[in-house]
Design brief:
The protein is an alpha+beta fold and 443 residues long. Helices cover 46% and strands 21% of the residues.
């Protein structure tokens, strides 16, 4: 089939984005008609219609019945071929699917179309010699181990009623009624509502009002909701609360003994064995979190030093994937009732742009710096991940049982290689990080 494809004049039609391109395509009508006839003839040999033997259906009936379908198939195939030839001739890397529209023309010999599409951006890897990257550092010692033990104890806390005023750390059970302009407002009333003072479950003014009260005591106080409060009808609004404390309970932390060790999975209750396991797991977790923080620092630096335009088509595809992932996560957490939860595409726009940008930049870095994952690297990551399980050898076999699982590990290794390359190229500033900050513990 003879086709013709040329680029349009860029000045004649300004592009909406730096990555959008336009091509003019043409299809010779005579060639198209010939292809349509061939398709109908092939179809006629096998088509079955009432009143006719197979292969004996008149051509005019075949054309009447299947002519439009044959025409569209032949035209789409011709346009696809023309587009591929034009793109190849101009060495373009197409991102997404082209939008092909017919042009108004008086030609009697050919059909003309306009193809609008995006191309991949050109990525030139920037020099990182002058870039500063902070690398958080933390050594796990006795203090960090004790802090972790305390966190584990708090996770197993129990509360016992006490006859005294409520203080920070106590759990109080209250009745409350909120009023705005003298009238109760929606969500402002509860009975036997428990919360722990100091944990931030309630607004600070509300916690402060409960502090210092004993069981059976009441208080009326005024407060103003934060301007960014999630309930828009209350954001920045002044209200009044009536609060009655029903019970005050103090926290009782478990002792670090055999029973505590058993609750953590140490069958014989050996507390030293428990400490050893906690220390091993803690060091692994700290290493993972430090690595994650460094990776985020590196990725931020790469995005800043390699700014690129991203194809809208790829961003839209990424948004679709993020929405699908979010729905699956919500279904797992809240059941199938959340599968139809309305999601706005703009919620995911910034994240999608970042992921697409990083993907393009990392791909070019891996290609130009030869940072592809090696088999021995993949094996090392798999073995390291398996160590946190009771039967590591089974986990290793599980990973190697399917190529898709190894592909995920390969992606991790490639990111690690990029991070190592970036750290070897940039100015690295080691900076101590507090244990609670790294682990996300609140005081």
């Amino acid at each position: 089939m003879e086709t013709n494809a040329t680029t349009t004049n860029a000045e004649a039609a300004p592009q909406p984005s730096a990555l959008e391109r336009t091509l003019e395509l043409s299809v010779v009508i005579a060639d198209l008609d010939k292809e349509i006839d061939q398709r109908l003839k092939r179809l006629g040999k096998n088509v079955k219609m009432p009143g006719f033997r197979p292969g004996k259906v008149p051509a005019n009936i075949i054309k009447q019945q299947y002519g439009y379908e044959a025409h569209m198939e032949a035209l789409n195939e011709a346009l696809e071929k023309a587009f591929k030839e034009a793109v190849k001739a101009q060495q373009m890397r197409v991102a997404g699917t082209p939008k092909i529209e017919p042009k108004k023309t008086e030609s009697e010999t050919q059909l003309e179309f306009t193809a609008t599409f995006e191309v991949y951006p050109e990525v030139k890897v920037a020099d990182l010699n002058e870039v500063e990257i902070e690398r958080p550092v933390l050594e796990v010692g006795a203090t960090e181990l004790e802090n972790t033990l305390n966190v584990l104890r708090k996770q197993r806390v129990r509360y016992e009623p006490v006859d005294r005023v409520a203080a920070t750390g106590d759990r109080v059970t209250v009745d409350f009624l909120g009023k705005k302009g003298g009238e109760p407002f929606q969500g402002g009333e509860a009975k036997d509502y428990p919360f722990v003072i100091g944990e931030g479950a309630m607004l600070a003014d509300f916690e402060n009002a409960a502090t210092g009260l004993k069981a059976g005591e009441s208080k009326t106080f005024e407060m103003t909701f934060p301007a960014d409060y999630h309930a828009k009808d209350l954001a920045g609004q002044a209200v009044t609360f009536d609060i009655t404390v029903k019970q005050v309970s103090e926290a009782i932390l478990p002792e670090i003994d055999a029973e505590f060790a058993k609750s953590l999975g140490i069958a014989d209750g050996d507390t030293q064995k428990m400490r050893n396991e906690i220390e091993t797991n803690l060091k692994r977790e700290v290493k993972s979190r430090l690595k994650s923080r460094v990776k985020n620092q590196v990725m931020d630096a790469l995005l800043k030093t390699n700014p690129i335009d991203v194809p809208k088509a790829l961003v839209e595809i990424e948004i679709d994937q993020l929405i699908q992932n979010a729905r699956q996560d919500m279904e797992q957490r809240s059941g199938k009732k959340m599968k139809d939860f309305p999601m706005q595409r703009e919620w995911f726009l910034d994240q999608a742009k970042r992921r697409v940008s990083l993907g393009l930049v990392l791909s070019e870095i891996v290609r130009t710096k030869e940072l592809h994952a090696k088999p021995e690297q993949i094996k090392s990551v798999v073995e390291d991940a398996a160590q946190s399980y009771e039967h590591p050898e089974e986990v290793i076999r599980w990973y190697y049982a399917q190529p898709q699982r190894l592909a995920e590990i390969e992606g991790v290794v490639i990111e690690d290689n990029v991070v190592e390359w970036a750290l070897s190229s940039a100015k690295v500033l080691d900076k101590a990080i507090a244990f609670d900050e790294l682990m996300g513990h609140r005081g």
